[in-house]
Each structure stands twice: as structure tokens, then as C-alpha cells.
Queue: 2 jobs
Job 1
Amino acid sequence: MLDARTPSGPIEQKWDKCRYEMKLVNPTNRRKHSVIVVGAGLAGAAAAATLGQQGYHVHCFSYHDTPRRAHSIAAQGGINAAKNYRNDGDSVLRLFKDTVKGGDFRAREANVFRLAEVSVNIIDQCVAQGVPFAREYGGLLDNRSFGGVQVERTFYARGQTGQQLLLGAYQALEEQVAAGRVTMHVRSELLDVVIVSGRARGIVTRDLVTGQIECHAADVVVLATGGYSNVFYLSTNAKASNCTAIWRAHRRGALFGNPCFTQIHPTCIPLSSEHQSKLTLMSESLRNDGRVWVPKKKGETRPPNDIHEGERDYYLENRYPSFGNLVPRDVASRNAKEVCDEGRGVGPHGQGVYLDFADAIHRLGMQTVREKYGNLFDIYQRITGEDAYLVPMRIYPAPHYTMGGLWVDYHLMSTVPGLFVGGEANFSDHGANRLGASALMQGLSDGYFILPATVPDYLASTKLDAVATSDPAFEEAKTEVKARIDKLLAIRGKRSPDSFHKELGRIVWDNCGMARSDAGLRKALARIPELREEFWNNLCIVGTGEELNQSLEKANRISDFLELAELMCIDALDRTESCGGHFRVESQTPDGEAKRDDANFSYTATWEWQGLGQAPTLHKEPLNFEYVPLSQRSYK
Ligand SMILES: Cc1cc2nc3c(=O)[nH]c(=O)nc-3n(C[C@H](O)[C@H](O)[C@H](O)COP(=O)(O)OP(=O)(O)OC[C@H]3O[C@@H](n4cnc5c(N)ncnc54)[C@H](O)[C@@H]3O)c2cc1C
């Protein structure tokens, strides 16, 4: 039975009560403890810096050459906080409610409330660091809206919010590096988690420059290694983002929560060529002012500016008058797919809808639109060659974020004692659909506030024997890591790692993407093991293991995607209801919205690894909704 360790009592007192009851480590004893933090994105850098400030010995690992390159830097649109600076009816309770509803009632209420509560501190923390959030003329912090809400609570720094937040976390981290409390290990990739006497006590890494395999021991391990959207091959994530850290931890006993809950973002630049290896997001913030439409007529070929008002279908505004263009992402994506499937899509492959700023430019003036969104228009222009100030942008949904991840309790500890997970890597607080601008909020909440409270409690309340890397468990894990790398290098087949990744991505996108069916998922479940078999027999890696070898790095990561993809499809097949981004075509309301089955699926699905090719075991964490009553989501 999973124990989420949710504190008792009224929801608004749970976190305070938990903090009060947690044990502390005396300041002079803190330096006796070592903490490994894997990941230096927003969640990892914030956690490592804060634990360093507290006085622990922190070792922080990243496969990047600097923390500043973490995928978090790509975040564009903003970060939510229930500050109610607009005085438009916002509150902690409202952010909590919006998030539970936005996630289609598949998140743990207590965690979501805590997230909303902590959100207000994040902004203060970042402002104190000097993060240059956008300000109004009078100097007050500015806000805008994101999907699924009716207030303006999103703080932003133009279209570069992630970059500015990451610079804030990075400088806090570097301060601790200079103080000698954090040691950075860059270009160092975790390839295994080491368990000693049932507790996470270290990791095995590969130095990406020399190929050296190394062991590192500590009292506790924190994973903040990001999401796994690149299982789809094409996604808005950084090319290197992968699932290896959480997948290897899963293989060592950490249960995986809701693997099939993935987010397809509605506003990305459409695919332009079969040879493309990356998709680009156009921030959701653009839907504050941009209007989404397609021609009413199927097969329309005229340029957009020649299509008159009466011939346009502003389908989101028409179908969802209350939220209009700011419906949540799952709803916007499904609707875009639907109009394109009807033959009303635009652009070269008919896989696109317009995001039009003509009205906004008319209403606000070119200069204001440029100030708010200028860098996004520039990105769009460089990729498509089109000027979105003059013609509408073309957008289409693309894989973007993963709500699934390692299952964690209220303390953010996985089912492996001593293994904590933060940021996008955990199964998180977003249920079956994440609302915009809430990933940064969650990553920073985990990193600056939750982990720095719960990790010390674990250290203070656990008897930890001294463990060295000479322990047999480290030797065993290191031998396994080496054997896997040697096996990959020895195949010497004919296909490149990318060709396998591309084929896998297509299978997952077609069958476990925006729409999922029993037949499609079964097809994928038959095909993925075959592809994995071929991978292990026909893979070609150039170069050796004792050098910088990106072909080997990719192959290693793809070997994990090939296993994770299967679990995603198993989970999606098992959950016969639709909820949020998990749209089972068999479970729809009469007007085509996701239809939940609360009687049978009001739980978090957590899966236990049983070995390759063996059926994983399902454990359920029941979800109870005491504060936000279960209801059919409606944005009409
Ligand atoms: C284009 C884009 C725009 C976005 N915009 C927004 C937005 O406006 N607002 C919002 O709230 N959210 C946004 N998101 C989502 C948000 O950016 C991410 O969810 C968040 O930044 C993830 O942070 P993280 O710290 O969990 O992981 P990451 O930033 O992905 O960091 C992962 C870290 O782990 C390290 N790592 C991973 N695996 C290993 C390993 N095996 N060994 C060693 N190191 C490892 C990496 O080197 C990196 O340092 C956006 C996402 C995308 C793709």
C-alpha cells in the first residue's frame, strides 16, 4: 500500500503542520551530511543552492557543460503566483482550485494546495535575487493570463522567463560553489542509482568527455532531471532532454506515476519537413492577444489576409465563450486536431491553424505588441521566414511536457527511501493536464521550499551508516553500467541511434499521442518490443566509449526511451477513461470532450518494474477530493 504521508488536518494547515512536525538538523551537524542533487535546471539548481546555503555538503550533477544550459532556460511565457496584484479575484484557494480542475481531478489535493500557497514566496525570492520580471509603467510587477483561468496571475520576463529565473537560481548556486558548499560536476551523466540496505546512497555517472565511469556516495539523493517528452522524438524540449535518470531509478525500485499523462501543447510551429529533429514552441502567452482561427471552408488555399471575417471560424471563441482562446492546453490541442482532421487545416501539409494578431495590433498598437511578444515574433520569423506582424502565425500541437514521472509522497520522496524527486521529473501536482506557467512554479516550489525542508527531516530522522564507494553495491552497479555500454558498442549493426528514435517517436505519437484507442495502443505494444529487439541487434555506434561520443550518449538514452514507451502504452491502455491530455477515443462526452470515469479511475497509477519484457505491477494511490468537488470540466 502506497503511503503518501499527507498530513492530517484542514488543507490550509497541512504544510505548516508538516513543517512544524519535521525534524531539524543542527547547523553544526549539517556539514557532516552529504547530498547528491542530479540536475541543475530550475528545480535542481534551486534545491542544490538552498541546501548549500543551509550548510550541507552538496554535489550537483549535470550532463550539460554549465547549469545555464538546462532545458529550463527555454521556458518562455511565465510563472504563476496567487499574489492577486491585479485585485481581480485571485487567491491561494482559487489557484488551487484552477490547478485541480485544470488537471482534470487526477492530482493529490494536499500537494496542489501547498503549491498554490508557496507560489507567493517564489516571486519574492526571485525578485530578491534580481530576476527582472516585467513591470508596469509605475514600477509594479506586471501580470498576464494563461490558459484555463480567468484571472491575471502570471509573472513574466518578456518571452524569456525561464532564462531569467535560471540565471537567478544559477547565481545562488554559484555563490555556494564559491563558498565551497556545493561541488558542481558538469558533463557528468547519471547512469544508475545505488541502493545500500534499501536506501538510495549514491549514483554511478559517466564523464561525457573522457568516458570514465565513476561512483559517488552520499546520505541522500535528489533527482531533478526534467521530463521525458523526447520519447516522441519530435518535441519542444531541448534535444538532450531524456528519461535515463528516472528510468534507471525506476529499474532500481522507484515506482513510476501516471507515465501516460503527457502534454501536447497547442501553439507550436508546425513541422515543415520529414528531416526535422526539433519542434519550437510559441508561448501560450500569445493566446492573451492572438486569436485562433481556421477557414470555414475545407481545402481553402487563399492566403489568410484574403479570407474575410465572415469566412473565418474562430472556433475556440465560438465553442468556449467563457474562456475563448485561453482554454487549457489539452482542450485547445484537441480542437486544433479536430479542425485539421476535418480538412480545414492551413499551411503546406494542412497541419496548422492561424494565430492572428491583427486585432491586437489594431487595439494596442504595433509597439505594445512588439514590447510584449517581440522575441517570440523574431523566433517565428527566423524559423518560418514569415512576418507575424503582417500575416497570422501558423501553429499546431506538439509534445511539450510530461505530467507523469517518478511517484513521490508529500515529502517528495520516491518509493525508494532516501531518493527524492523534484521538478518535472516527479509525477507532480498537475494531474492529467498541466496549466500554463505552472511548471516553473512547481519546479521552484520543490527546489527552493519543499526539498530544503523535507530532505533535512529525512537526514535528521534516519540512522545512516557511513557508506563508501568501495561498498559492493557500488561495484555491482558500476559493472552493470559498463556492461550495458560495452553491449551497445559491440552491436556494430547498420542503423543509427536517431533512426530508432525517430521510428519509436512515430509509434508513440500515432498511438499514444493526442488521441489513444484500444486498437492503436495494442498495435504500439506489439511493435515497441520488436523495435527494441532490432535496436539491440542492429544498432550502429561510431567511436569508442573512452571519448566524447554523442552517438553513444544518444543510444544509451534511446535504450531507456524504448522501455519507457512501452510502459506509457501499458498505462494508457489500462486507463480506459479520458482525462486531461489522456484522451481515449472510446470515452468522450456527446460534444467530444474528455469523459472521466471517477468510479473506476480516481487514482494515481503507479507502476513497479518487474524486469524487461515482464508485465509491470500496478499499484494505486486513491485520490479524494474534499475541497474541490468532482465535476465534469467545462470551459464553455
Ligand atoms: C519551450 C518550452 C517553454 C516552456 N515555457 C514554460 C513557461 O513559460 N512556464 C512554465 O511554467 N513552464 C514552461 N515550460 C516547462 C518548464 O520549462 C519545465 O517543466 C521546467 O523548466 C523543467 O525544469 P526542471 O528543473 O525540472 O528540469 P530541466 O530544466 O529539464 O533540467 C534538468 C537537469 O537535469 C540534468 N540531467 C537530466 N538527466 C541527467 C542525467 N542522467 N545525469 C545528469 N544530469 C541530468 C540536466 O543536465 C539539467 O541540468 C516550458 C517548456 C518548454 C519545452
Job 2
Amino acid sequence: MKACVLDTPCPVEQRPLQLTDVAIPSPADDELLVRVSACGVCRTDLHVVEGELPIRRSPVIPGHQVVGTVAARGQAVNEFQLGQRVGIAWLHHTDGSCRYCLGQRENLCEQAEFTGWTVNGGYAEYALAAAAFVYPIPDGFRDAQAAPLLCAGIIGYRSLRLTGLGESFGGWGGARLGIYGFGAAGHVVIQLARARGADVYVCTRDVDRHQTLAAELGAAWVGDASEPPPVKLDASIIFAPAGELVPAALGHLDKGGVLVLGGIHMSSIPSFDYSLIYGERVVRSVANNTRLDGREFLAEAARIPVRTQVQEFSLADANEALLALKHDAIRGAAVLALLC
Ligand SMILES: [Zn+2]
Ligand SMILES: [Zn+2]
């Protein structure tokens, strides 16, 4: 099969991914082999390729937003049919036995494996997945449009849940949500939040694509992170990996507000005055997701329905897709389209 293989992490400008022929892997007893039709390109892939995340497997095939069809099943797998459309996400496997897994917090599992980082992912014609961690993909989404749901969507959903909006702010109607950085996750979260009744304020530096898309998707206000939104916000999510946004976003947050950091990596957060967080403001990160997050999100995305905007690249252009992502040149989500 054709696969984009990362040998040594380096700046994506040096085109670190090599399109290579490798053997089609065979599934273990509890695994599925999936024929990949589309794989979303996530900022985490960029962190893997450029080495901001430590090397956990080398060489490795990145990609953790995989849509495809079941090509083979391990001997112990009964729940999927050959040819069924499925999705593979970031959380590849957990041990099921640690205190986090036993406490409904499998996203924090000490022994977790991650697609496209600790095991090979979906920048390839085939990918393996642990069957218990695979999602059926709801009808109504083209393969390429479904791919960004599997990380941008699921992590966005979890980030939105961790804001506490809806539960502790008097319901969703009129709740004020800020989104900093408006890439793949942001453009899904705004659709969730608006469908629930919130007003969404978007801070993003890219005017041509990100600010325009945010306005089209119904943002109450769109601006640069340097200009304060016109109202104090009840909660905000930072998707951009820029630590300097933390004090800025805290400064825009109302008393009691929650600031959620939605990325796996962020540059250093500058020190800030206590007054920015006083007033019972909260800063918290998001680490991975549970399978329940994934199932709940996909059901809600189908119900609304969420409409992802995708920019498609060929597998051979994976480096170009990552480069475009790095330079804010994607409107919505980048997707490697193999069979679309
Ligand atoms: Zn565990
Ligand atoms: Zn991701």
C-alpha cells in the first residue's frame, strides 16, 4: 500500500513525510483493517511531524481522523460488517484497568495508545484500529466531510462540554462563548454552540479565510485577538497553540468564566497578574477524549446537522496540506482524500 511515512521529525517546510510503498498490515484478533477513503489533517499531526510531541514510534504513519470501510476483521471481532463505513480517531486503545479507565476517565489512561503517534495512522491506503475504539459513521456526511469530525469535532465537543456552559450559566440561550483560533475544531464548535442557543465571539488572526468563515457561520462578533470582544464572555476555548493568548483570553472573560485550552501542545504561557484569574475564573486543558464523547458528538453532529467545510489534498500532497495548515491557509479542515 501507499503510505506517508515520517522517519525523522523536522520542520514541515523540509517535507518530512515520504510517500512510500509498505506492506498492508494484518489485524490482530481484536482489530479491524480499514481501507482508508479520507483522513483529516490535524494540528496534532503537525506537532508529531515537526517534533513538538516526543517520538513514540519511529518510523510512523501519522493521521488520526480516518474514514474508510472495513476490509478485514480480527478473529475476535463480531460487531462490524465487511464493507461497513467506520471512523478511526485519536484514542487507539486504553488498558481498561487503570484508575482513570475504571473511573470513566479513559482519556487520561496511563497506558493509552494514540493513532498516528504511538501506532500507525491513516495517511495511508489502509490502517489498523482496535475494533472497540472504532465508530460507525452516521449517514449524511461524505467521507471527506466526516473525517474532521473524528478529532476536530470530538475534541471540540469535549472542549465545549468542559466550559460548563449550559449547566452552570443558566442554560445555553444567550450564553457567550469565545473561540480563539478558527480552524477545523472552531468551525465545528461554533455550529454546536449556535445550535444549542449560545452567542459565539471569534478571535482569529487570519482575515481572509478564518474570520470570513466565522462570520458566515453566524458569529456574533469576529475580530483579532488583540481587540477585546464587545462583551465579557462566559467561557472561551483556545484552539490556537499560542500561549500568549491565555492572558489575553482571561482578560476578556467574565467573573466565574472558564477558559478551556483545546490543544495537545501550546507555546509557553506568559506570566500574568493575579487579577486576570481572580473572580473565580478557571483555566483548564483538554486531554484526548473518551469513547462516550465520540459517540455523543457524532449523534449530535448528525442531528443538527454539522456541515464541515473541507479542503481536499491527495495523499501525495500530505506535506503541502500540513504546510497550509501551519500557515492558516485552510478554510475549515484539510483532508487527504484517497477514494472520495
Ligand atoms: Zn487506563
Ligand atoms: Zn487531532
